[in-house]
Amino acid sequence: MLARSDRLVVRRYEVETELQCVLVLDASGDLSTGQGSPYAMPELEGTKFGYSLVLTATLAYYLIKQQEPVGLLVLGGSGPGAGVYLPARGGGTQLARIFAQLATLRPGGVARIGEGLNTLGPRLRRRGLVALISDLMEEPEGWMPSLAALSRRRTDLAVFHVMDRRELTLDYERPALYFSPEGGEALPIDPAGAAPELRAVLNAWLVELRGGLAEHRGRYYPSWTDLPLHAALAPMITGRRAMPDRDLGAV
Amino acid sequence: MNLGLIAPLALALGALAIGPILAHLAQQRPSERVPFGAMMLLRRMVKRLEKRRRLKDRALLALRVLALLLAVLAAAQPQLSWPGDPATIGGLGRVVLIVDDSLSMSQRDAGGTLLTRARDQALATLDQLPPGTLCGLVLIGGEARQLTPTLTAETGPIRDALVNLQPSYGRTDLEGGLREARALLTGERGEVLVYTDEAGPTTISEAQGELARLVERGGVVLPRPTRNDPPANLTVLDARYGDGLEGGSVSLRVANYGAEDVEAAVTVGLPDGSEITAFVELPAGGEAEERVTVPPTVPGGVAWARVIDPALEADNTRFFHLPRVGASRVMVVDGDPGSTPVRSEVYFLERALAPWGGARGGVLPQVVAPSGLAALSTEEHQVVFLANVADPSPWAGQLLDFVRGGGGVIFSAGDNLTAERYNEPLRALMPAPIERPRDLIDLTASGGVPLDLPDASLELFEAFAEEGRQAFRRVTTRRVMGLGAFNETGWTETSQDGVRVLMRFEGGAPALVERRIGRGRVLLWTSTFDLGWGSAPLQAVFLPFTQRLVAYLGGESAGGAVRAEGVVGEVTSLRLPFGGLTLRLTGPDGADVPMETVQGEQTELSFLPRLPGPYSVQVGDEPPVALIAVNTPAEESDVRAPQPLTAAAAAIDPALTERRLRLGPWALGLAITFLLAQSLLARREAT
């Protein structure tokens, strides 16, 4: 160009790197509980799953709009979308496909987060983003190693921890038999007496989670169902620090 | 200390304790079911709480059950009681002090005797009495006695009596003391303080009835025991001379009422002033026996055995009768020294009386010729055998005095005896008039007429009652001394003494005739004591029969004096075989002792000994006609207290001396505390 025109030319190229994203949605039975979600959805009103669906759909929409290929892996669940895996692709068609799956999905069964993450590893061909949307109600030693394996593959990890404030503060009136929709033994609990003890357990658990995720370079986004959605998404989009202490303090 | 329940039936409510237990076991579960999405956290919480909750549950259960049981216990009204005194003495306005001045109170302790200790305590009590309290004093050593005729507010005389109190040798008359106290109280309520060492195995048990009567009439018995702890005392329980005809030794039984084994020295004092000491091993709380050999010749009288024991000296000595010991007690007058032993009465009598030659006891007779009768004395001799003596008439007077003084004479027949030299000169002595020898069978023939079986009811033959009586049938004779007419009142008009035939030969011929004269006896054996007329010396029964004769005629007496035994503080009675004489009773301290006598043909004498030791009854300056060995009461020596008076009084009416504490309010308070504690614990219970 300089020889031909004898003038200096500066060419600027803008190359957009394509980030393969997989949204891992926990649709286990435990997500069917909760009363804090503000999103009006038939059958799922107030539940953690309702919140999770909206969060997942919003993430998918955002990432597609960012020209990123987006995939979906459903853990547990019931209905046609249960256990579905959609490889990451871009475009409106993929978004429509994801929405369709989410629309038919209902909570049920057991998530088995560790196993799900393990199946994801071979499907990811290069560096990408794995976003886990879950209440994480499985013992960390069952899924934290799988997360660690993904981390070793230099996969960017983001965990949206869906939490219902009423559940975690045991804001119930009468003693009752509390049971998990996923099955297992029911426990007689007096909420008034057990709340302080549960708070101590909860704090210890959150510390355990944050510590584990930090160790494996994962990002933790507490997602309280009674808070607006952007409260969970904004930290991820803006890259702010993802774990404001006030969230823990509010528990 | 006792724990009792006023309403024991309330304990049945204890069955309610099963309620909390069942409630804990049931663990009510809520019926409402709530789906919950954070069960993992709940499970973590439950796991964390599990250990703590288990502990809490058990503590809760224990607290609740305890609270319930304590509430039930409170309903049963438990009560703790123990023996105690009223808060103040004299609160009833009348007080009787019973002070034990018996022998055992002379026990020594560090500060003096138990009596001084009891006296000081009584004086201190007297000082503490509220003004105006009516007071009385009773002593119970020997026989209980009031020192104040009535209760009085004037304590001066009582104080003086206590200060001048001296120990006695008597037994503890607690029963009498309580009776006197009851009399002083005259049916009113009052406190009876008893200062005693409670010694004696039956002191308390004997007083039970009187104790009950006193308590029944409102008396509050407050024992004030004064004892040595541990108790210690040695005493001679029994001292006895010999166990055979003459014995030769003194048997001693010594007791140790202390708590430790000891070796003690025991000394036997004989009437002649000589002493023999032996050592005896005494087990704790037990007895031991010891024998002390006495010399061959000892005068009779009251001897003593003493154990050295400083703990209680008053009972260390025991007095006992000692017969006159020695060979000179039996005199054998040989009236016909035989050419061979078998023809000598003395030969057989010597061997019958002293089978071992006197070396091992027995009676070694003093053999004399008829002229030896001049030395006859009741002081030295007790029995005289006149064996075929031809003419004892020169000593008839001496023989008569000897018998009247308590001696015994035995005439044995033989060829030397003649009616002329016996019947008239010895008319006052002979049991029956003799005539001349009479052949029962031919003298040249073998065998003879046997004796009839003797009457075992007679004192002389009592020893043969069980066995040996048949052996008399082997004694035979061919010839006997013929006797003249006599009857039970004697054969002389002047005689008032009893005459009786003690034994006969088969066919009725008298074999042994007795006559009692004064305090002695005369026996006439109508055959010989050698083999001249019969076979008596060869028969097995000869030896025991001869020795029995000696004992019967006075071998067990001492100089002919009547012997008796007594106990300090108890009336001692004895009977003297004569009457109409002026008697004098002398005590161990040499002073005359008051006595009561009932005179007749015999004399009944009684007195109350106050001191232990030998007492003697005399007629003028004559030798004693009676000797009495008086000892301290044996039960006082047992200084152990098997049954405390406190327990006896409490057994009759515990309420009088009992202190009580009601535990109901305490149990209720504790139950409420437990209930509160369980409430607090339950509030902290999370699930």
The CATH homologous superfamily of chain A is named von Willebrand factor, type A domain
Global mean pLDDT of chain B? 83
Largest sheet of chain A, in brief, is:
6 strands, mixed
- Look up the CATH topology of the largest domain in chain B: Rossmann fold
From the alpha-carbon coordinates, what is the Rg of chain A to the nearest angstrom? 21 Å
Could you explain the architecture of this structure?
The complex is a heterodimer of chains A (251) and B (687). In chain A, helix 2 packs antiparallel against helix 3 and helix 4 (113-120) packs parallel to helix 5. In chain A, strands 3-2-1-4-5-8 form a six-stranded mixed sheet, with helices on both faces. Chain A has a two-stranded antiparallel sheet with strand order 6-7. Chain A is 40% helix and 19% strand. Chain A has a single domain, classed as von Willebrand factor, type A domain (Rossmann fold). Chain A is elongated. Chain A has nine helices and eight strands. Chain A has helices at 2-5, 48-65, 92-104, 113-120, 140-152, 165-168, 191-215, 229-238, 245-249; strands at residues 20-26, 70-75, 85-89, 128-134, 156-163, 176-179, 187-189, 218-224. With 251 residues, chain A is of the alpha/beta class. With 687 residues, chain B is α+β, with helices and mostly antiparallel strands. Chain B folds into four domains: 2-25 and 39-76 and 663-684, no CATH class; 94-227 and 641-652, von Willebrand factor, type A domain (Rossmann fold, 3-Layer(aba) Sandwich); 327-555, Rossmann fold, CATH 3.40.50; 562-634, Immunoglobulins (Immunoglobulin-like). Chain B is 24% helix and 28% strand. Chain B has a seven-stranded mixed sheet with strand order 19-18-20-21-28-27-26, sandwiched between helices. A five-stranded mixed sheet of chain B has the order 8-7-4-9-10. Chain B is elongated and about 150 Å long. Chain B starts with a strand and ends with a helix. Residues 243-247 of chain B have low confidence and may be disordered. Chains A and B meet through strand 6, strand 7 and helix 7 of A and strand 2 and helix 2 of B. Strand 6 (176-179) of chain A pairs parallel with strand 2 of chain B, so a sheet runs across the interface.
